[in-house]
């Protein structure tokens, strides 16, 4: 009734998009003042005049905080990290096309033409040796900005590369160092801005890397046909400068200094960094070398990277050996990128919702990798080969996110940049061995079957080791819960209460 002013207040509230509860309380107060029947009030409140159909959507959006962990600002940071990685890792995702273009431009054989790309893949990982300490010393923002600028500059400098050696220097070293800085620091920034939705945000960041597969190979193919390799890389470097613009948006959150940190994704996994005093010194971050679980994570990540390289580099050739047409195998690889994106987003989101523990996700990733790689060499059905390829792609998608989440759970955001940089750098050192390993099985043995079996066995060893670690932690935690110790005097300490101390009243 307009006489009561109810519709006027509702219209004013709709214009300013205020919270639904605020509107209800406002109208309810006015209704009570005028002794309006509760039934009449409820009937009016449910009408479209008082409550628009899209009101529930507005109300849900208003529940997301504007600042602080897991806020609107945090999701904008996650999107900026994803786009920075999207541009920085574009060269790595276009390695297949660049390999052919380099051989045609410089008229070199496959061994010489692969050097710039092999260096690029290794240096991206080895950049963690300098990136982690730099981020720990100066914070993450200047490092990711410098990385985006260096990655673009390296690609632009390829325009002046007249020999294959200069191409290896500009593309394989300079561009790769910048791309590695962005790739390694982005998870650290995500870890600083999220608590509850850290897994999904990590997946969103790494999805930016995967999406480059759908854009940049075709873009470089067009540019190479129109302007040649040197002109294509010049324009490509200019396009990658967009990543610098997104990296400028990133900042260290102010609430990290004033709010208690919650670095644990799984309450059963200890975050050692919370039990130690925070120190700006690098030697504090280097204490990760004292933790045995750090070496287990490093081994698991290297196993994951070996399987990733084998799948990306060898699947098309392997499928052709099984009688699959080249065009069909390439299509399956492109479709596998979709499953890779699903792996980066779905499993971390399930962990964030508490439906799956992170230790279960680690085991699931390693077990799926072990089973698929062990079965793949003995399968001749094309449909089954394609199905296993999609499972491997899904596992590859989950692996990068799960291992970064595991590092964050054990060591916290204070040591995230250093620990993740060292783990990734260890995989970079192993990258120099992979070409010889692949060449041995293909050229001397004549098939990739035993290489895939080795990948499966390494994943199985990693899964078995994690089971032992988790069982040890479970038994230790069970003893802590059941054990109680009565100290002399009037103080009783119970480990079940997580170091809480209760003083008994005097008798």
From TrEMBL:
GO cellular component, one term: membrane
Residue intervals passing through the bilayer: 75-103, 115-135, 142-162, 168-190, 202-220, 232-250, 293-316, 322-342, 354-379, 385-411, 418-438, 450-470
Annotated keywords: Membrane, Transmembrane, Transmembrane helix
Organism, scientific name: Rhipicephalus microplus
Keyword Membrane set for record: yes
Origin superkingdom: Eukaryota
Domain Major facilitator superfamily (MFS) profile residues, every copy: 77-474
Gene3D superfamilies tied to this protein: MFS general substrate transporter like domains
UniProt subcellular location: Membrane
Name of the protein this chain belongs to: Putative monocarboxylate transporter
One Pfam family in the UniProt entry: MFS_1
Recorded topology in the membrane: Multi-pass membrane protein
A GO molecular-function annotation: monocarboxylic acid transmembrane transporter activity
InterPro entries: MFS, MFS_dom, MFS_trans_sf, Proton-linked_MCT
């Amino acid at each position: 009734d307009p006489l009561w002013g109810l519709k006027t207040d509702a219209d004013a509230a709709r214009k300013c998009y205020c919270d639904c509860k605020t509107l209800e309380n406002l109208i309810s107060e006015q209704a009570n003042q005028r002794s309006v029947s509760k039934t009449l009030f409820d009937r009016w409140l449910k009408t479209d005049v008082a409550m628009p159909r899209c009101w529930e959507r507005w109300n849900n959006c208003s529940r997301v905080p504007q600042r602080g962990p897991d806020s609107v600002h945090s999701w904008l940071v996650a999107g900026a990290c994803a786009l920075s990685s999207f541009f920085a890792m574009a060269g790595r995702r276009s390695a297949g096309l660049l390999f052919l273009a380099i051989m045609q431009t410089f008229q070199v054989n496959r061994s010489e033409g692969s050097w710039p790309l092999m260096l690029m893949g290794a240096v991206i990982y080895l950049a963690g040796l300098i990136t982690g300490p730099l981020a720990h010393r100066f914070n993450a923002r200047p490092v990711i900005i410098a990385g985006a600028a260096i990655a673009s500059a390296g690609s632009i400098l390829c325009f002046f590369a007249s020999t294959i050696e200069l191409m290896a220097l500009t593309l394989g070293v300079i561009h790769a160092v910048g791309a590695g800085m962005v790739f390694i620091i982005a998870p650290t920034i995500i870890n600083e801005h999220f608590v509850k939705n850290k897994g999904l945000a990590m997946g969103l960041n790494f999805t930016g890397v995967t999406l480059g597969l759908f854009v940049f190979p075709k873009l470089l193919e067009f540019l190479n046909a129109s302007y040649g390799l040197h002109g294509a890389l010049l324009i490509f470097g200019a396009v990658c400068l967009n990543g610098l613009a997104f990296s400028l948006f990133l900042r260290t959150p102010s609430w990290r200094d004033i709010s208690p940190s919650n670095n644990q994704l799984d309450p059963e996994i200890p975050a050692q960094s919370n039990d130690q005093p925070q120190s700006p010194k690098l030697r504090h971050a280097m204490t990760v070398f004292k933790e045995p679980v750090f070496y287990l994570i490093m081994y698991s990540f290297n196993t994951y990277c070996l399987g990733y390289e084998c799948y990306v580099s060898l699947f098309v050739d392997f499928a052709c050996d099984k009688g699959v047409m080249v065009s069909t195998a390439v299509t399956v690889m492109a479709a596998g990128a979709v499953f890779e994106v699903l792996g980066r987003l779905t499993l971390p989101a399930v962990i964030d919702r508490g439906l799956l523990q992170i230790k279960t996700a680690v085991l699931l990733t390693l077990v799926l990798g072990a089973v698929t790689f062990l079965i793949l060499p003995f399968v001749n059905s094309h449909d089954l080969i394609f199905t296993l390829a999609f499972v491997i792609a899904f596992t590859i998608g989950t692996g990068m996110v799960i291992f970064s989440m595991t590092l964050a759970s054990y060591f916290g955001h204070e040591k995230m940049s250093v620990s993740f940089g060292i783990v990734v750098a260890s995989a970079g050192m192993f990258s120099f061995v992979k070409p010889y390993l692949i060449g041995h099985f293909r050229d001397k043995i004549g098939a990739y079957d035993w290489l895939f079996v080795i990948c499966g066995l390494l994943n199985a060893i990693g899964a078995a080791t994690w089971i032992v670690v988790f069982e040890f932690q479970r038994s230790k935690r069970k003893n802590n819960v059941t054990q109680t110790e009565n100290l002399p005097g009037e103080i009783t300490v119970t480990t079940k209460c997580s170091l809480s101390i209760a003083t008994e009243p005097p008798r």
